[in-house]
Specification:
By secondary structure, the protein is mainly alpha-helical. The chain is built from two helices and no strands.
Length: 64
């Protein structure tokens, strides 16, 4: 498993183990959605941080 895949797979199992239309299934779907949202935000933030650090390094090189 890679990265946050370990967090997502059990949540998918929770959805599969519940009956369609049940309140617990809806809760499990919401948990999975929140987890996906958090992971996507982490990825976006990581990309922004990488770009910021690359820009700092290139700006430092350009000033030499």
């Amino acid at each position: 498993m890679h990265g946050s895949e370990g967090e997502v797979l059990p949540l998918i199992g929770d959805i599969d183990s519940n009956n369609k239309g049940s309140a617990n299934r809806k809760k499990a779907i919401n948990r999975l959605g929140r987890t996906h949202l958090r992971i996507s935000r982490q990825r976006e933030e990581h990309a922004k941080r990488l770009v910021r650090s690359y820009r700092k390094k290139s700006a430092a090189k350009a000033s030499w």
